[in-house]
Amino acid sequence: MSRPYLLYCSALLLLFGFLSYSAILTKSPTFDEPAHICSSYIALHDGDFSVEPDHPPLWKYWAALPLLTTPFNANTNTPIFHRIPFQADTEFPWSVGTLFQTPENNTPFIINSTRFMMLLIALALGATIALFTHHLAGPLAACIATTLFALDPNFLAHASLVKNDVALAATYTALTYTLYLICQHLTPLRLLSLILLTTACVTTKLTGLLAAPLVVAVLLTRAFQSTPWPLRYPLSSILYPLSSRRSRLLLTLTLSALCFLTTYAGIWSVYRFRFNPSPDPAVHYDTQQFLTRAAKGDLLATLHRNYATAAEFNAWKP
What we know:
The protein is an all-alpha fold. The protein is built from 14 helices and 2 strands; from the N terminus they run H-H-H-H-H-H-H-H-H-H-H-E-E-H-H-H. The termini are far apart.
């Protein structure tokens, strides 16, 4: 990217960062941010995933990094915390009490520092968008795309929040960019990026599972194209074109298998090679509570009202 275009995109991202950081200092926490922040800390510090099991912990590790250097009482020895695996709704009063009603916790620093970590991810997303569109359509397109990102109200509103939506957008965009580069020609570095980003998508949000059909569909599309698919082996500067469709399909199968195996291993490593939600082997999650909640929601939607009697719920079949 030429110097004027690079300066323009950099200035836009700096403006985006300034506006978003200003929001960090002025916004009250959203409804679910206290639970996200407190669960991020215990996931990183204690390896405890009993709070918010519906959110994979990779992005939480990143958000909670500043909290390792500041005093933080997570109140994990309180009765309300021990009820969470059996009564998931108690995660909200526990997190609110921990964040706002525990005197030794520096609440403004905790909120602002975790939000700043999420803002860094948003800035990385903006830089990825600029690079990707530059590769696709040149420097002018990169400036237009960066402008649309940096001034978009949705990203300005969400970039500084401790949530995994923008983090997933960043990993998906980086994954798509990597797939685009791999379709040009495959290198060891691009292969490493592919397997790491596929794992990152799945361990950032549950909808990251959609990365699997995305990867397979793009690679299969490239394999069925008539043009050769160049690849470069490690420690080599020579590109070797795969001219036959059979060799390209074999490469697709190999890459897909590598992504599957590394993602499988990555999930276990992110959860510290432990199936149990807590380091305490005696703690187990009552999963029936989530099925009951979903069933009640389905029943209320059928009844078109916001309540149901016990008899109606017991007699209802999904």
